[in-house]
Amino acid sequence: MDNLLNIVTGISLFISFFLAFFMLIVKTKHKISNRLFAFFLIISAVDISEPFISQISEGPSNLGMFRTTLAFLQIPIFYLYVLSVCYSDFKLKPKYLIHLLPFLVSNIALIPRFYSVDVASKLDFIINRQNMIELQLTHWLFHIQVVVYFTAVFLLLRRAKKLYLENNSGGNLNSYQWLFQLTGVLAALYVIVIFKNIFKFSDYPYISDWIKIGILMLQPFITCWYLYKALNNPGLFRNIDSKLKLVSDFPLEEKTIKPEILNEDLLKLKKYMTDEKPFLNPDLKIQDISKEINVPVRELSVLINHQLGQHFYDFVNTYRIENAMQILKDSSKSKVTILEILYEVGFNSKSSFNTAFKKQTGNTPTSYRKAL
C-alpha cells in the first residue's frame, strides 16, 4: 500500500508542478491570474506530499508541521484567483495581505510548544494532540476559513454572472459554469478533508487514514481535470469592471425614470438597434450603445434591466436571434450553415447560440429550419 501511495503521490506532484510551470511561463496578458493559479497548484502539491516528507524526516518535524499549516494559504489564493479571472481591473493590493492572517496565527501559536522544542517534546505533542489547544485552535480556524471563503467565492461568482449579463452581450456563459464547477469540486474536497480531521481527533483515527488515502488517489484525476478545463476555458469573464454596480444596487431614485424620458430613450434605443445593427458585434457592451445614443450607462442599464425586464445579454441576443430567423427563412440562403449564421448575427459560440435560440423560439436552429 505504501508503494502505491508513493507512486500516486509522485504522479500527482509531477502533474501539479508541470501545470504550475506551464501557467508561469505561458505568454498571456492574464499573468496575475495564471500566477495565482500556479501558486495554488504548488501549495496543493506540497499539501499532499506528506508521504515523501515523512520519509525525509523521522518523526514529527518543523518542516512537516509547516507543510500542514500551508493549507491555510490554499483557499485564500483560490479566492484571489477567482477575483482575478472575474474582473478585468484586478490588481494585487497590500490589503490582500490580510488573507495571510490565519496562516500566521496558526504558526505563531505553534512556536512555544512545537517549533522551539526538541524532537521528544514534538513527539509528545503529537501523541497528545487531542489535548493540545494549539492544534484544536488550528483545526477550528481551518474549518471556519473553509466555510467563510467558499461562501465568499460562491457569492462572488453569483454577482460576477449578474454583472456580466447586465453589461455584456458576448462571450460564453459556459466559462461561468466551469468556474462554478471548479469551486464546487474544491468545496466538496474540503468537506471531505474536514471529516478526515474530525476523525483524526476522535476515537477512530484509522478512518481518517483511509480518507487521506482516498484523497491522495483522487488527486491526480482532479488535477488533470483542472488542466483540461483551464485549457478549454482560457477567457472566462475577464472583461467585467469591478467598479460596475448591479441595477439592484442603484438607489431607488436612480431606478425611477420619468415617463417622457423613458419613452424617448426607448425609441432611441430601438431605432439604433434596428438601423445600425450593433448586435452584429460579438463583443458589444452596454457602454458602446450608451456612447452612440448619448444615454448615460446607468440610465440605459435601468431601462433595459429594470424597465424592460431583461438582462442586456438577453436583450441583445433577442435581436441576434430575430436576425438569424430571417436568414433561416430566406430560401436563397438555404445552403448557409448554422455555424456560418451564428457568426454572422454576432454569436461567437455554437452552444450559446443554440441556448439563446431555443429560449426565444422553443426550437433548435436546425429543427426551426426544417419546420419552415
TrEMBL record:
UniProt xrefs under SMART domains: HTH_ARAC
InterPro entries: Homeodomain-like_sf (IPR009057), HTH_AraC (IPR018060), HTH_AraC-typ_CS (IPR018062), Tscrpt_reg_AraC-type_HTH (IPR020449)
Domain HTH araC/xylS-type: 267-371
Recorded GO MF terms: DNA-binding transcription factor activity; sequence-specific DNA binding
Protein name: DNA-binding transcriptional activator FeaR
Organism whose genome encodes this protein: Chryseobacterium indoltheticum
Pfam families per record: HTH_18 (PF12833)
Residue stretches spanning the membrane: 6-24, 36-53, 65-84, 96-117, 137-157, 178-198, 210-228
Lineage, opening ranks: Bacteria, Pseudomonadati, Bacteroidota, Flavobacteriia, Flavobacteriales
PROSITE patterns: HTH_ARAC_FAMILY_1, HTH_ARAC_FAMILY_2
